[in-house]
Amino acid sequence: MRQWISNVFRLGRKELSSLRTDPVLILLIVYVFSFAVYSVATGAKLEVENASVAYVDQDRSALTGRILAAILPPQFNPPQEIPADQIDSVMDAGRFVFVLTFPPRFEADVLTAQKPQIQLNVDATAMAQAGNGSVFLQQIISAEVAKFVAGDDTATELPIDLVVRTKFNPNLNSVWFSSVMQVINNITILSVLLTGAALIREREHGTIEHLLVMPVTPSEIMVAKIWSNGLAIIVAAILSIWLVVQILLEVPIAGSIPLFIGGAVLYLVSVTGLGILLATFTTSMPQFGLLALPVLVIMNLLSGSTTPMESMPVWLQYVMQLAPSTHFVAFSQSILYRGAGLETVWPNMLVMTVLGGVFLLVALRRFRLTMATVH
């Protein structure tokens, strides 16, 4: 056993030395955990911001002016007036996300309780802004009409006071969500790519034959690749959370970083084993990339990091329980967002441990078969 550990340690040091001398992989790690996290967090926003609004005012009354004056930044750009016959053309050209149309005698019909209709055209190709922006505009219009009819700026349409208390992200800032989730997704991507690339690199450089004549076993070779590449990813992820997420983006981390690292280590065992497993089915880096791409896309999009698991079909929810990324995302969200402790996340850690053992055994069996066929 002592010799096995010694061989794994020495082979792992060789992997780290090989990684250190590969500027492309080093640049990839730095880019993925720095600029990629920052650019996605600040660029891909889910909330409504600077949405373009146009209007057709066929009434030109005090009420329509009041409604238009209430459509303010930062959610919306100042509304721009357009002719009625240009609604379809500006929507087709994508110039405006929202187009409001006020009918003639709108104010008079409101005052006589005729319930006139306001037409709101929405460009739903921008789904996040379309859905949330429509709700905001309805709330603005309802509030302004209620105040106008009552002649009191403090009037509200509802006879109740709805108090909303938002936990974990009180300002509903998408940067808080997307920055952390980008780090989580990048851990998955690099874990598969680095370990698979390490095995492919041995073949392409012809060093796999050198390993075969050495007094080492396939398990020692595989475990060495897992711990060395996993160490590089863990260090990069910690620095990313500290420097990019917490300092640069000023996103608060609610839970225990050491507990998160412990769960990440368990997750890396399974996902790096998956990288080696995929690499055993290929003989070159392009083949490995083509095989890994659909696997990574499915793991990232359907793990709960982009959309809630509850919004997926039930059968797909059960299938994704076999993916370690599903449990790692739930584990990470509980700790980093909600400040959960071990008593909450231990089921996720247990499942990741079981899946890690399964992936490791399957990858080891396949790796041994691959090593036996190398001439």
How would you describe this structure to a colleague?
The protein is mainly α and about 375 residues long. Helices cover about 65% and strands about 5% of the residues. The protein folds into two domains: about 1-45 and about 175-375, no CATH class; about 55-150, abc type-2 transporter like fold, CATH 3.40.1710. It has 15 helices and four strands. A four-stranded mixed β-sheet has the order 2-1-3-4, with helices on one face. The two termini are about 30 Å apart. The relative contact order is 0.11.
How many angstroms separate the termini?
28 Å
Class based on secondary structure composition and strand pairing: mainly alpha
Give the strand tally. Answer: 4
Q: Give the tally of structural domains.
A: 2
Radius of gyration: 28 Å
- Beta fraction of the residues? under 5%
Helix content: 55-70%
